[in-house]
């Protein structure tokens, strides 16, 4: 494989409903679509999922543009690639900026799958025909609305409910949910809203039989999470803190968590996501696939990755229609009885809908060898 042309499309798509966490609210999603062309003319697609504000990680869609234009695309154009794993090595001298790296690495994986006549799921080593999915629900204005929203997604078949918590909207909130839904698979994501000073409060959550609590403490912490995990029964799941296989090794050795949320973009691509998956499998740490409110291309990659053997907990990869009036892929990702069927066709398994892509595109720029 050799990339000869890369086009960056900048899109803005309005979500059906705003998504609120302790970090902020998002409704209009600005993101990047990467269209990469190989020397044989095969086109691969990637998605740049960094948000407009550096609140979840330090990256933004603008830093992604800068990295792609000035470093990542120049480093890849014209390079002979034997396997998509080569991309991670080529990018190694460039520190962090994982979402920017993943955006173009995903396009190389798509090209590789097409050139080797297989689905992306099969190219990454997936073993499942269908994947079990859950849903992540943002903070709601009232408890009534939250209960109603949970009921709606349970009715749609979602297998696990994740709610956002923050100080002051935690114990009572979870108690209210448990009163309405005593036995559903339920978990809470704090997006780093707590410190060890809140340990008594976090211990109170042990009463509610949560599947796990996601990223309670600082976004870059492993040590305090290990201290916390020793004192609470609820399994700790790390999201923000895991940016690489190295972070994973340290977290597992320290006992910082019992579960890991893998997001392709957060760890710099599909290759590193796979290595984290494999390490966790060897160490009996279950993983699940997190989300970045992706449009169709990122969503398709999540479906493929989740077909790996150790994705044994439902992830956040919900149906396209949960987020978008119209997605940029055909067919859209659909959920039936809480499952997504992993596509078997060549490459991503979904076609990019050029008409939709152009409709939501606000600018584009092409780089050639
Ligand atoms: O539905 C999704 O794509 C995931 C939603 C979600 O929880 C989330 C959305 C934006 C930023 C961070 C997170 C998170 O997993 O912490
Ligand atoms: Mg999270």
Automatic annotation (TrEMBL):
Listed name of the protein: o-succinylbenzoate synthase
Catalytic residue list: 164 (proton donor), 263 (proton acceptor)
Gene3D superfamilies linked: Enolase-like C-terminal domain, Enolase-like, N-terminal domain
GO biological-process terms attached to the record: menaquinone biosynthetic process
Swiss-Prot/TrEMBL cofactor(s): a divalent metal cation
Positions of Mg(2+) binding: 189, 214, 239
Keyword Nucleotidyltransferase: no
Entry keyword set: Lyase, Magnesium, Menaquinone biosynthesis, Metal-binding
Catalysed reactions, as listed in the record: (1R,6R)-6-hydroxy-2-succinyl-cyclohexa-2,4-diene-1-carboxylate = 2-succinylbenzoate + H2O
Species whose genome carries this gene: Solibacillus isronensis B3W22
Pathway as given in its UniProt record: Quinol/quinone metabolism; menaquinone biosynthesis; Quinol/quinone metabolism; 1,4-dihydroxy-2-naphthoate biosynthesis; 1,4-dihydroxy-2-naphthoate from chorismate: step 4/7
PANTHER family, per the entry: O-SUCCINYLBENZOATE SYNTHASE (PTHR48073:SF5), O-SUCCINYLBENZOATE SYNTHASE-RELATED (PTHR48073)
């Amino acid at each position: 494989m050799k990339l000869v042309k890369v086009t960056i499309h900048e899109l803005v798509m309005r979500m059906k409903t705003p998504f609120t966490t302790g970090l902020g609210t998002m409704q209009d999603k600005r993101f990047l679509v990467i269209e990469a062309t190989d020397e044989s003319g095969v086109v691969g697609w990637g998605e740049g999922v960094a948000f407009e504000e550096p609140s979840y990680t330090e990256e933004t869609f603008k830093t992604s543009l800068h990295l792609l234009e000035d470093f990542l695309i120049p480093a890849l154009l014209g390079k002979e690639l034997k396997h998509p794993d080569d991309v991670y090595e080529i990018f190694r001298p460039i520190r962090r900026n994982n979402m920017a790296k993943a955006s173009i690495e995903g396009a190389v994986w798509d090209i590789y799958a097409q050139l080797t006549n297989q689905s992306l799921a099969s190219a990454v080593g997936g073993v499942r025909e269908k994947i079990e999915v859950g849903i992540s629900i943002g903070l709601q204005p009232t408890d009534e609305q939250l209960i109603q929203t949970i009921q709606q997604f349970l009715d749609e078949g979602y297998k696990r409910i994740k709610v956002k918590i923050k100080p002051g909207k935690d114990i009572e909130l979870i108690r209210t949910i448990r009163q309405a839904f005593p036995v559903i698979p339920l978990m809470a994501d704090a997006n780093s809203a707590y410190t060890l000073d809140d340990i008594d409060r976090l211990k109170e959550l042990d009463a509610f039989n949560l599947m796990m609590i996601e990223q309670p403490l600082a976004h870059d912490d492993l040590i305090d999470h290990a201290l916390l995990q020793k004192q609470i029964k609820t399994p700790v799941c790390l999201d923000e803190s895991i940016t690489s296989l190295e972070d994973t090794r340290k977290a597992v050795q320290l006992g910082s968590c019992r579960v890991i949320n893998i997001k392709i973009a957060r760890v710099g691509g599909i290759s590193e996501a796979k290595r984290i998956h494999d390490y966790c499998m060897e160490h009996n740490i279950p993983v699940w696939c997190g989300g970045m409110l992706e449009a169709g291309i990122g969503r398709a990659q999540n479906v493929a990755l989740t077909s790996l053997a150790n994705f044994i907990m439902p992830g956040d990869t919900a149906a396209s229609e949960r987020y978008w009036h119209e997605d940029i892929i055909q067919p859209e990702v659909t959920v039936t009885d809480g499952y997504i069927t992993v596509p078997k066709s060549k490459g991503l398994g979904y076609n990019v809908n050029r008409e939709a892509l152009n409709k939501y595109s606000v600018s584009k720029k092409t780089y050639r060898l």
